[in-house]
Amino acid sequence: MRSGRRIAFDVGKARVGVALSDFHAILATPIDHLTRSADLAALIAEASKIVTENEAIEIYVGLPLNLKNESTLSTEDAVAFARALALQVEAPVRLIDERLSTTSAASALRSAGHAAKSQKGLIDSAAAAVILEQAISQEKLSNMAPGIALEDY
After folding, report:
1. What pLDDT does residue 54 have?
2. Which residues span the domain enclosing 134?
3. Is residue 1 domain-resident?
4. Residue 139: pLDDT band by 50, 70, 90 thresholds?
5. Within a domain: residue 137?
């Protein structure tokens, strides 16, 4: 397993959840969410700043396919975010299948006693942590970079 911090983004219509790993890729921690607006450039600038400040060696963006493994409008939105981010940062950007990550995050938060409706930003960053945990697990099992390289999608 390579050493270095990794960052995951869960791209949604209203917010983008953000999670960060520790240097040894043991823990995935929800750290923040970014609020969406019509200005993609401003969103990418915020995301790039987080990547740079944390010296991430790899970036994961959730790939929201439907249950039939097909692309949706959300898929196109996430890929557009990933492509724009890749132009602004040096770390490679990879796409991670994120089906049910938000559902898993909301369920875990409810189990911990958090009211899901009042914690939407927390759910988004927790979903990013689910994506990051999945990516880390994939790399540990295969000893290869997880997900899909952006240039291969």
Report:
1. 97
2. 6-152
3. no
4. very high
5. yes
